[in-house]
Specification:
4 helices, 23% helix, mainly alpha
């Protein structure tokens, strides 16, 4: 790569730098190991989410926000302790 090109190597996130670090040693893995897009893809297949080992709410529609996709919210809220004073003070949606 030409480091003097004044071009941005990647946008926000960690995947592109990881690809550089492991260049030549990257292998495809099953998508269920890191299911992303849950914060911007409204038409996500619920069965795929259920099978996901790791789900990633990237994008703007985080499940704890009013703009979050309601059909995906239960995958996040089942892990939230709503009895916690800290959580209650954060006004996180149930």
């Amino acid at each position: 790569m030409n480091l003097k090109s004044n071009l941005t190597l990647w946008k926000l996130g960690t995947l592109p730098p990881a690809l550089i670090a492991f260049r030549g040693h990257v292998h495809p893995i099953d998508p269920s190991w890191h299911m992303l897009g849950l914060g911007y893809q409204n038409k996500t297949n619920i069965e795929n989410v259920k099978k996901g080992a790791v789900i990633h709410y990237n994008g703007q529609s985080k499940p704890w926000l009013e703009i979050g996709f309601e059909h995906l919210r239960p995958f996040w809220t089942k892990y939230v302790n709503y009895t916690s004073d800290f959580i209650r003070n954060c006004h996180i949606l149930e």
